């Protein structure tokens, strides 16, 4: 695995200045960085599945699955390995190259359920897909078991900048999240970590998030940038949707700061126009969640995505010749 080392001197002020660059100058610069490090014709496509939905003890203010919020999402048991592998097969047939399984857990607990998740990872790998999981906090010995099962990526988002974190989540800290990322990294699993825009945060908080991600050493291999999907019953239900230019700006800055990472234009695409998404791809996004559902909320229809990619001359990684 090639690990990107960063200049240890990257300052928050520099990241703030980057984010404040006139939009078209920033996109132009980011597009150059993108083309220097990636083949811009390809888009990595991950399909998500919620393998354990709802009833989470954490109080993340954006989340439909928190037991602290009264949302339309019902608590469900862990899906069976067979059901999950059926979904993974369908995702592969539809053109996904990675299958990402999410659980509404605060943290992984050793036992039968974790053993089932390890079987899911093994099964996904046997299908010839990359495997990713997002299961909450993780201890080093659990990360080692996931690595042994063949896991490629662990997703654990920092969500927002340090100055805004405790306005959104009180039941765990940003440092808890960083500790899990260390366990993932030390086990030799690729790190997937990003955040959410549109939770009432300032530009400075967004700069803090990017600074924290870009100064991880090594940098994350995968960086999802989500736009809040405002869910009825959550504390952030009434939050105004973020302007599309802020999404483009943040993606462009992430691309400049983390040249080798794959940057994912993640949640929130259903509410974005094709034109705004095209701008995000130009600014350096080279990954999407694919399939008509994210974890509990809608994602664009696969046919709409296929049309958009074709119009832009982009190809899903799985169709790479
Ligand atoms: N429980 C685990 C955790 O929190 O890490 C894994 C599942 S959690 C749903 C995964 C990530 O999805 C969150 O960290 C957050 O960044 C993102 N997410 C959740 N709800 C969202 C929403 N309504 N809008 C945008 N992103 C969201
Ligand atoms: C990520 O950054 N975004 C995904 C994935 N990692 C796990 C989750 C998006 C969830 C959107 C809200 C939902 O569908 O519940
Ligand atoms: Fe949602 Fe994960 Fe927070 Fe639980 S820990 S409330 S599943 S984001």
Can you put this structure into words, describing what you see?
The longest helix is centred in the N-terminal third of the chain and has 15 residues, at 23-37. Strands 1, 2, 3, 4, 5, 6, 7, 8, 9 and 10 form a 10-stranded parallel beta sheet that branches. It contains 11 helices and 10 strands. Helices cover 40% and strands 15% of the residues. It has one domain: TIM Barrel. Helix 5 packs across helix 7. The mean pLDDT is 96. With 321 residues, the protein is α/β, with parallel strands linked by helices. The site of 6-(5-methyl-2-OXO-imidazolidin-4-yl)-hexanoic acid has 16 residues, from strand 7.
Number of helices: 11
Q: Span from first to last CA?
A: 23 Å
What is the molecular shape? globular
Q: Could you name the CATH homologous superfamily?
A: Aldolase class I
Instruction: Please mark out the parts with pLDDT under 50 across 5 or more consecutive residues, or reply none.
Output: none
User: SSE string, helix = H, strand = E?
Assistant: HHEHEHEHEHHEEHEHEHEHE
What is the CATH domain class? Alpha Beta
How would you sum up the major sheet? Answer: 10 strands, parallel
Beta content: 5-15%
CATH topology: TIM Barrel
Fraction of helical residues: 25-40%
The bound ligands are: S-adenosylmethionine, 6-(5-methyl-2-OXO-imidazolidin-4-yl)-hexanoic acid, iron/sulfur cluster
Structure, briefly:
The protein is of the alpha/beta class. It has 11 helices and 10 strands. Helix content is 40%, strand content 15%.
């Amino acid at each position: 695995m090639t690990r990107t080392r960063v200049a240890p001197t990257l300052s928050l002020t520099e990241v703030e200045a980057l984010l404040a660059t006139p939009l078209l100058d920033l996109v132009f610069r980011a597009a150059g960085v993108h083309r220097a490090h990636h083949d811009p014709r390809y888009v990595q496509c991950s399909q998500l599945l919620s393998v354990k939905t709802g009833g989470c003890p954490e109080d993340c203010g954006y989340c439909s699955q928190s037991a602290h919020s009264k949302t339309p999402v019902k608590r469900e048991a862990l899906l069976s390995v067979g059901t999950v592998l059926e979904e993974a097969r369908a995702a592969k047939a539809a053109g996904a190259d990675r299958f990402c399984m999410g659980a509404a857990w605060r943290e992984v607990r050793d036992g039968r359920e974790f053993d089932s998740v390890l079987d899911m990872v093994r099964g996904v790998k046997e299908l010839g897909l990359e495997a990713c999981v997002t299961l909450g906090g993780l201890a080093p010995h659990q990360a080692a078991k996931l690595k042994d099962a063949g896991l490629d990526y662990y997703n654990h988002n920092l969500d927002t900048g340090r100055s805004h974190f405790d306005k959104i989540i009180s039941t765990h800290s940003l440092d808890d999240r960083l500790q899990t990322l260390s366990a993932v990294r030390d086990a030799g699993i690729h790190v997937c970590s990003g955040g959410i825009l549109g939770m009432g945060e300032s530009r400075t908080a967004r700069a803090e998030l990017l600074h924290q991600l870009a100064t991880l050493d090594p940098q994350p291999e995968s960086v999802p940038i989500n736009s809040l999907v405002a869910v009825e019953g959550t504390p952030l239900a009434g939050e105004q949707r973020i302007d599309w230019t802020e999404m483009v700006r943040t993606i462009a800055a992430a691309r400049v700061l983390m040249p080798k990472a794959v940057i994912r234009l993640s949640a929130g695409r259903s509410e974005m126009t094709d034109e705004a998404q095209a701008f995000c791809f130009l600014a350096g996004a080279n990954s999407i969640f694919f399939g008509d559902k994210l974890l509990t909320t809608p994602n664009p229809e696969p046919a709409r995505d296929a049309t958009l990619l074709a119009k832009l001359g982009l190809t899903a990684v799985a169709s790479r010749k």
